[in-house]
Structures are given as C-alpha cells and as structure tokens.
From TrEMBL, chain A:
PROSITE patterns: HYPA
Gene3D superfamilies reported in the protein's UniProt record: 3.30.2320.80
Family of the protein in this entry: Belongs to the HypA/HybF family.
The protein, known as: Hydrogenase maturation factor HypA
Species name: Rhodobacter xanthinilyticus
Binding site for Zn(2+): C73, C76, C89, C92
Function: Involved in the maturation of [NiFe] hydrogenases. Required for nickel insertion into the metal center of the hydrogenase.
A Pfam family annotated for this UniProt entry: HypA
GO molecular function: nickel cation binding; zinc ion binding
Top-level lineage group: Bacteria
Keywords: Metal-binding, Nickel, Zinc
Gene transcribed to yield this protein: hypA
Amino acid sequence: MHEMSIAEGIRTVLEDAAKANDFSKITRVRLEIGAFAGVERAALDFAFEVVMRGSVAEGAALEILDLPGRALCYDCAVEVEITDRLAPCPHCGGGRLLVQGGDEMRIKDLEVL
Amino acid sequence: MCTVCGCGGHSVEDQFRAHLAKQGQAPAAPLAVLAPHPAPKPTAPKTPAPAPAPVDGSHAACTHDLHFGQGPAGTEVPGMTQARLIEIETDILSKNNSFAARNRAALAALKAFSVNLVSSPGSGKTTLLCATIRALGAQPLAVIEGDQQTSNDADRIRETGAAAVQVNTGKGCHLDGNMVEQALARLDLGAGALLFIENVGNLVCPAAFDLGEDAKVAILSVTEGEDKPLKYPDMFAASRLAILNKIDLAPFCDVNLDTYEANLKRVNPEIEVIRVSARTGEGMELWLDWLRRGLAAKAA
C-alpha cells in the first residue's frame, strides 16, 4: 500500500504549489506515471480520494497519463518500448533488456480556481 | 434555454418549442412561455421547401450542432469555469527525494559507503548483517534497522558491539528519506564508515523510496523459490547487487542456483550476484570484498 505514501507525497506538493501560486482550490490533477513506476491505479485512486480530504484538492478529479516503458536490448542494442519488465525485445526476441525509462512519477499540471 | 451555449429562453417550454420546430411541427396550442423568446422558426413543410427557411437569428452564432458526440457537453463552453491550468512538472516523491539528497550529501562528506538492504521477511538479513559485522572486525560501521514493530533486530545487532538505531514504521511498509535522516542524527557515524540500512522486509514498496544510499542490495534466500525475481521485478531491477543467501540449504530445497541467477539477470542484466551462506560463512569473503570496494570508491 505505498500508494498511500504516494498520495501523501502528492498532497505535500499540491499544498506547496497552492502557497506559491496563490490559489485555494484544485479541481483536477494530472499525473504522469510510467509503466514501471510500481503504481497500482485503483489503489492510487482510492488513496488519492482519502488523502486529499481537507486539503486544497479535496474532491479534485485525478487523471493519470501513462508513460511507456523503455528498455535497451543487450542483444540488438536498440532502444525499444515494452509493456512489462519481462517482455522480450520486440525487434530480436531477446530476453536481456535493461530498463531505461518508465519509472516516472510526476505531477504534470493542475486545474485550479 | 439552449443547454450548450445558453442562448434562447429559460423554460422547458422553449426547449419543447425548439424541438417541435426541428421536427417541422408547430405547437398545437400556445405554451405558457415564462421568458421572452425570439420569434419561433417558421414551420417547415414535410416536403422540401422551395426556398431555404430563414435562420433563427438568436442561434446565428451557436454552432452546437457540430459538437454532437464530441466530449461531455459543457466542457468547451467559455466562461463556465474560472479554472486555470498550472504546469508544475514536479516529481511526486520530490519531498522524499530532497531528504534522500541531504542524506547522500552528508554520507558523501563522511566518505561513508551506505547500502540499503531489501528483501522479504525471513531472508536472513539480520543474520547476514551480524556475520558481516563480526567478520569486518575493526571497520567503523553503524546499522539502521527498519521494522514495523519490536527492537529485536537492533538488539541482535548491538550484541555484536555495533551501533544500531531501530526505526519502527508502525503501519508503514518501507523506510523513507526522512526516517533515515532522523536515524542518522542519532548515530555518531565516523569518517570512512559503513552504513547498513536494513529496510522493512517487503519486496514491493521499498523499491520506490530513495533513502540516499549508494546501492540497494537485495537479499534472496534459496528457500524462497527461483521465481521470486520474476514475481517482484521492481525490487531486483532497482538493486545493484543480489545476495543469494542460505545456499547451505539448497540441496534440501530442490532448487537450482543457476536458475535463480538467470532469473535475476533477466530482470536486471547488470545485477551482480553473490552466493552466500551466512551460517557456514561460504561466499562471505566475496560480499566483504564488494563492501570494501564500495568504501574505496567513496574514499577516492
């Protein structure tokens, strides 16, 4: 259940942004989450709703933008997009892939009042 | 009232009148119109009219016919919301990362080498640590012990004579940068020391939280099953070294150590693997050398 900690991380960032940008209500939060960030969408939806209560983002809509997983294939030396960590290389079918990206967890933007 | 752009009257009757006009019918009887409304559209005959019907001026600027089926009604209406968009592009774990960065800087200043030991509960982390501390002898070191409850592990470490701080996370499933910063403040870590951070036994969550360590070391015992790296890939992907522990038990567990290693490499082709038995001491020297190399790299 580290989605709860992630939601608390989001709340901290949002409260800081509210002070810095002088707004009092957030109506929508857009996140960019990589395929390998280890975030379970349903768990984050739940945690977000609970953790945002009483904050500037209470009741805000949560939108998650998926970022693809990227990996470097050791066999054909090409950077490829893969959907899960254990997927074979789509070019050569090789199984030795070094993940290069897809563990992002970012707050992209906010819709505020 | 037109529900898309707000033009027209304000009553249900208006909408009904507009609907009838669209259908080419006139209202059978005068309706109770509550608000003034522009002249109704002329009734269109059932057969095509020779001349185009005059356009209702009140709708001249309303092009909502084009919007049908495109997104939820109302979202594109100007003036409906005062919302503004703020780009923040901030990492969700930025707070944790800032604690981790402070820890990393403090440890770098001391030329201390720190490892974050991650594993499932019962893989033998504490036994391995006690054996490591005894084998390292005079090497200055300290231990941060993470568990949900009890100080059992810190007590076991202190029996070896090493300094240890127990961090009980309560309900938490992982250590975070702030906990480690507070624990560091309670340790008198000397220059050139080794710092072992024994994370909460959990193969999932600790992968995501940077503590400021130099390397994550995953400990996997042979009794856990060869498929664990495949089942919990995030943790092994985040680790620089995997220690395959309890290899003295391998003959009794029907496991193939090469399969363990192949599965680890499949998840993380760059991971180093050391086979160890903390109980018999087999492989311990390789692990100690790995730690000494880490220390030497920090001192350089």
